[in-house]
Give the backbone structure.
Amino acid sequence: MKDYLKNNLRRGRLVCLTGAGISVESGIPAFRGKDGLWQKYDPEIYANTSGLKQTLRNHPGRLVSFLRDFYTALLDAHPNQAHLALAQLEKNGILTAVITQNIDNLHQDAGTQSVVELHGNAFRLRCIACGKTAILKKERIKEMLGLLGVVRDSRIKLLRLLSRYFPRCGCGQRYRIDIVLFGEILPENALSMAYRYLEMCNTLLLIGSSLVVYPAAGLPLYAKQKGAKIVEVNSQDSALSDLCDYKIRGPASRVLPEILNLIGN
Ligand code: NAD
């Protein structure tokens, strides 16, 4: 394993696919895991546009508590040693790109330049009609969460508050959070960039993903078919562990600095 990493990671031919597990040690629990968002909120409702609209109409108080829980962990999080090691590997010319399923912006916060976001970003807005995007600043979200306390169970007050933080775009339609909800298609650009990176890599590092969410979970197989070796860093087996050429079991924040030490310089 060590020999493989030392001898085969040619400059610029390593690509990573990351999932929620890489950010667990930054304080963002995986949605499906213990303490995860989906333990408290049914994803069929809260990860779905029509479910969210119905909740706003019928149970505004529940939407208030969901928004608070969703953003609180994301707002408090900082990149951990795994995010930082990947940024350094990129700086050293070894890592070409990080393809991520995460929406937390931690790869960019760590300094990684080439990040492909398959599922969007919780700190960005996107117009539902023209697709124009805008940054949703952390200060604005904090301000909104503070004001949510006043709303309580009033649908009208919640609507008024949300329309202040999710305003209308110049085209007349409304902005929404730029994340991919259940049943929505992935941004075409991101997916095609991901495929392009996978075609060029000789090693794909899978970090902290259960690999059960498609189409992202289809990417390792594509890379393998194109000739890449697959190395998995995870605290336990994923759905695709059998596909991997090498498996490293352990927390990403310990393993990635070790890999950096081994091949980074
Ligand atoms: P997942 O929750 O399905 O799986 C997490 C994986 O990480 C598991 O395989 C687990 O064994 C592993 N893991 C947990 N802690 C780890 C650690 N410290 N080091 C290494 N591995 C660890 O996550 P997924 O496969 O990314 O799919 C979940 C979906 O939910 C994604 O689409 C993602 O968009 C979204 N999500 C994002 C965030 C985030 O942005 N931080 C957080 C939760 C969920």
Notes: The chain is about 45% helix and 15% strand. The mean pLDDT is 94. Residues 233 and 248 are 5 Å apart (CA to CA). Residues 19-21, 23-25, 28, 30-33, 101-104, 119, 208-213, 234-236, 238, 251-252 surround nicotinamide-adenine-dinucleotide (CB under 6 Å).
